Amino acid sequence: xxxxxxxxxxxxxxxxxxxxxxxxxxxxxxxxxxxxxxxxxxxxxxxxxxxxxxxxxxxxxxxxxxxxxxxxxxxxxxxxxxxxxxxxxxxxxxxxxxxxxxxxxxxxxxxxxxxxxxxxxxxxxxxxxxxxxxxxxxxxxxxxxxxxxxxxxxxxxxxxxxxxxxxxxxxxxxxxxxxxxxxxxxxxxxxxxxxxxxxxxxxxxxxxxx
Length: 210
Description:
mainly alpha; globular
């Protein structure tokens, strides 16, 4: 593991172990605003500690979700009031480039609320989804709800992975490809199920009116 990642991992684990739930909340709030602090290091370790009896797994997921939603809402307001020029000017300091913003804008315009939900449930994408939502002046209530749901899905995957992997929780951060796949598959299944449910409900209404 590179020394930078190792140092970051040691710092994150010390914060979580030392501060407990407030440490999880603080780190996830900062992570939600887009920083190099990855949730893949924070939540799995908290899940591991939950398995050890230090934390409660459900509370870990809830606090991580609240923190990430709060941080993402701050990022939303940065996009809302600062707009594209501000995000592009300062985003480079945290690894946010113009290509990232352009991709996120296209994604958001195409999928709307569902895109925001999925964006916050997927690693790599979730780090910069909030800014285009703010720039597009997305309804705040819908933004917070879809962000919270997406974050809850991702945090649940990470926390359960750490809970099950025990002292091998770091493997989640090192190789997240399998976790990514599970999230993508779950998201696709959810969308297909929702579309099917909507069609069934519309069909039943049509039959009832006939």
